[in-house]
Amino acid sequence: MSFSPALTYAFEIRAHLEPSLHIGHGDGEVTEFTPIVGGSVDGPLLRGKVLPGGGDWSSTRGEVCELDARYLLQTEDGAVIDIVNRGYYRPAADGPDQYDGDLQVTHAGHYYRTHPVFRTDSPAHRWLAETVFVGLARPEGEDVVAIRLYALR
Q1: How many angstroms separate the CA atoms of 105 and 81, rounded?
Q2: Are the CB atoms for 151 and 10 separated by under 8 Å?
Q3: In sequence order, what are the residues at sequence separation of 6 or more whose Cβ sits closer than 8 angstroms to the Cβ of residue 123?
Q4: Closest CA to 53 of 38, 42, 75
Q5: What pTM value is reported for the model?
Q6: Are 149 and 13 a contacting pair, CB within 8 Å?
Q7: Adjacent-strand bridge partners of 48
Q8: Phi and psi of 122, rounded to 5°?
Q9: Rounded Cα distance, 47 and 78, in Å
């Protein structure tokens, strides 16, 4: 019997960004910090906002950018949720445009994926801290990154 894991669309985070700050560079690596100053959370399983004050520490080696973002979400019912969202952005010549229904969730030529981990003691949202997620990310203009999150079932 064959088994294939299933992904269920949970919600989308739209993080609003400030310009990146250069931290340094070393042997073939550039490190930057990008402030996260707000945003929204919207989807069938979670709604709320991105709180200001977080950020993404990225390290780029060659064409591969390793992402390490940490920020807070606040749900409609007031719960605060910590998110650590790590991933990679790199060119992918064989990467096609991808759609979820009518929404374009990835752009051709790019691999932009994340794997968020959540923490909260809110009983209503504890499921976030007990579920594995995969994120498909895409830039929207100069100052917004949209991350469509899918729960692995």
Answers
A1: 24
A2: yes
A3: none
A4: 38
A5: 0.92
A6: yes
A7: 41, 75
A8: -70, 120
A9: 11
Token pair in block for residue 88 = 């990679």
The pLDDT value recorded for residue 95 is 85
Give the Cα separation of 76 and 71 in Å (integer).
17
Q: What is the rounded CA–CA span in Å between residue 105 and residue 36?
A: 21
- Secondary structure in 3-state letters for 130-141: HCCEEEEEEECC
> Which two tokens mark 52?
């200001």
Strands of the chain, DSSP E = 7-17, 21-26, 29-42, 48-61, 64-75, 80-91, 98-100, 103-106, 110-119, 133-139, 144-152
pLDDT of the residue at 84? 98
- CA 72, CA 83: separation in Å to the nearest integer? 6
pLDDT of the residue at 123: 97
Instruction: Say how far apart CA 49 and CA 42 lie, in whole Å.
Output: 8
Closest CA to 114 of 91, 138, 143, 95: 138
The Cα–Cα gap between 43 and 14 comes to 11
pLDDT tens track of the chain, all 153 residues? 888 889 999 999 999 999 999 999 888 899 999 999 999 999 999 999 999 999 999 999 999 999 999 999 999 999 999 999 999 999 888 888 888 888 888 888 899 999 999 999 999 999 999 999 999 999 998 899 999 999 998
